[in-house]
């Protein structure tokens, strides 16, 4: 009987050691079925290459908001290279850039009703087309349709002396009812004025 008791006791001690051994394993092994632990870090780093950000301003009674992802130059040729001339571009990275205004705006004599719009461009060497499109919620330009354009205008790009590493939008107040929207990246700056309609 004593012999049987010792066998049971030895089995219990062995089982306890096995359990502790499993619990004390390196935490990285717990993720072995999901790949190396460094993979999530790599995914995070990729996301931060084009951080999500926004530009917001109050111009008169209008709350103007631009939402975009900001890609970096990273030693690449941007305009005429990564961003081709003559093709629609979502003016940012990932999801299409969008702009929202709580009041009607006037842009180069054209009316933009209060609302939310996809913001696209067609870059050119000497002239850019700025596009406000009713389909604001889309990935890149995957669902872009010219028939959904509500306003287009032409602008001349400004060449800057220094490289702007990350794409940046700005909404600048020029007086109580007027402002300026601009974005700059690499060595180009695009801007156009607007007026808040009464």
Features:
single chain; 198 residues; alpha+beta; six-stranded antiparallel sheet; four-stranded antiparallel sheet; 42% strand; globular; DUF2911; DUF2911 domain-containing protein
Kindly state the percentage of residues in helix. Answer: 10-25%
Radius of gyration: 28 Å
What is the chain-wise order of helices and strands? Answer: HHEEEEEEEEEE
Low-confidence stretches: 2-47
Distance between the ends? 99 Å
Q: What is the number of E strands? A: 10
Number of helical stretches of at least 4 residues? 2
Cα shape: globular
Strand content: 35-45%
Mean pLDDT: 83
Strand order of the largest sheet: 1-2-3-6-7-8
Number of individual domains: 2
Structural class by SSE content:
alpha+beta
What about the largest sheet?
Answer: 6 strands, antiparallel
Report on the architecture of this protein.
The protein has a 6-stranded antiparallel sheet with strand order 1-2-3-6-7-8, with no helix packed on it. The protein has a 4-stranded antiparallel sheet with strand order 5-4-10-9, with no helix packed on it. The protein is α+β, with helices and mostly antiparallel strands. It is built from 2 helices and 10 strands; from the N terminus they run ααββββββββββ. The N terminus is likely disordered. The longest helix is centred in the first third of the chain and has 22 residues. β4 and β5 form a beta hairpin. It has 2 domains: 39 residues; 148 residues, no CATH class. It starts with a helix and ends with a strand.
